[in-house]
User: What shape does this take?
Amino acid sequence: MTDLSVNLNVAALLRNRREHPWPDVVDLARIALAAGAAGVTVHPRPDERHTRPSDVRALRVLLDAEFPDRELNVEGYPDPGLLSLVHEVRADQVTLVPDDPAQATSDHGWDFETQGAMLAGVVAGLKRNGHRVSLFSDPDATHMGHAAQTGSDRVELYTGPFGGAHSDPVAEDRELERLAEAAAAAKGQGLQVNAGHDLTVSGTRKLITRIPSIAEVSIGHALFCDALTFGMAETVRRYLGSCASAEG
Assistant: This one.
């Protein structure tokens, strides 16, 4: 079954609008994990507009104390601050993204040909410290050989175009095939595959039914939108149903 990691950035973004302690990021993580999520994801940006280093540390405490079998996935651009933080909190997985600090959200993968040497050095350092490493990638099969040369364990395929095609079945099928080709190429290079961005419950089901080898999906925005209607625990259960769809 594909693992579900709940991205908590939306909760922190909402909290930061008023500088109140609610919604409580740790409490929401606890609900998601108790409902069956395999882990939580955070992307602590330098401007601290959503999750902050203090949130990441608090989540590590939660996992150690209550959910020692679950994972903390920390995303971000590999600047010294992020690398220091992931080492401090013993992130189980580090997902490296090529974001400019001003970007609203991750919207493209690494240029492995031009940035591969830099990434290889960062990946090697992270793996020496015991972290599993995933690299954010566009769904392009031709990129996977270069991605593998970095020494990374996984790639996270950017599913934004697939998620954005929800009202256009032809475009959705086209994007799904791009993802499938990229996933097959990654597997051929010895890379495991994660996926994430704009995945709804139905989109997640379609994705995993087509690509059952996906190891993990990281989902935040759409999941929190559903949680406004169904509550966090029930929403996690709905997504877990989609993650198990390939087995049904």
